[in-house]
Specification:
The protein has 224 residues and is an alpha/beta fold. It has 9 helices and 7 strands. The protein has 2 domains: 157 residues, 3-Layer(aba) Sandwich (Rossmann fold), CATH 3.40.50; 55 residues. The longest helix is centred in the middle third of the chain and has 17 residues. This is NYN domain-containing protein. One of its GO terms (biological process) is regulation of gene expression. Pfam families: NYN, SDE2_2C.
């Protein structure tokens, strides 16, 4: 991850700041967790909040002083605003950044939006207070899932799952990939918009192509 920074999209309604902390300390904890993963630092932090719940100007000042951009909105508007801000950030094709999205389990439409970012060269980390969030469906859409409470409170990296293969140098043959099993191979292929059907051997052989050929250079017959 050397040379990369992170843009944070954070739902304060779903994942509020612990009572014992303040925005500055929480930002420091997030930065510490990212540094453990090899990131250079935070590019920006966007926090989405319910303006009816958080109307205190003193509240807003504490966040602004910590360098956090506050974005108000009701539940539906807040979720869609966050989703489209992520999309626009990806469309802008900013080089050398990844995304950290802090919120509870999200709607399928939101997850589908996140899944479009990896083919553009971005990693998406989802941080959630729900330990059960790391389902197959979620893992098809993001690179990894962290526990948000550990992230915000201690800066600890409590990784619920990191199912994506990021380094194919660890595999010397399709047969070694077969050890992952049909379900895992299906998720790996689906997350890359590659055809995921067929036998265990066929799936492993298809995924192994990425060891020598970038995803965008693969023949169309291997893609969905």
């Amino acid at each position: 991850m050397s040379g990369k920074s992170v843009v944070v999209f954070w739902c304060l309604k779903d994942c509020p700041i612990p009572e014992s902390l303040n925005p500055g300390l929480v930002c420091a904890n997030i930065k510490k967790s990212l540094e453990k993963k090899g990131y250079d630092g935070l590019l920006s932090v966007k926090a989405y909040y319910d303006k009816e719940t958080f109307s205190d100007e003193l509240f807003a000042k504490k966040y602004r002083d910590a360098g956090i951009d506050l974005i108000p909105g009701g539940k539906t508007a807040r979720d869609y605003k966050m989703m489209w801000d992520i999309v626009l950030c990806g469309v802008d094709n900013v080089k050398g950044i990844d995304f950290l999205v802090i919120l509870k389990p999200v709607e399928p439409e939101f997850l589908l939006t996140l899944s479009y970012l990896e083919p553009r060269g971005y990693n998406v980390i989802l941080a959630s207070p729900d330990k059960e969030v790391a389902s197959e469906f979620v893992l098809r859409s993001v690179s990894s899932v962290w526990l948000s409470t550990s992230l915000l409170e201690q800066g600890d990296l409590d990784e619920l799952s990191n199912i994506r293969i990021t380094n194919f140098d660890d595999f010397n043959s399709p047969q070694e990939l077969e050890a992952l099993g049909t379900v895992r191979l299906k998720i790996e292929l689906q997350s890359r918009r590659m055809k995921c059907g067929g036998t265990l051997q066929a799936r492993a052989a298809r995924l192994f192509l990425l060891k020598s050929t970038p995803l965008d250079k693969l023949p169309k017959k291997f893609k969905c």
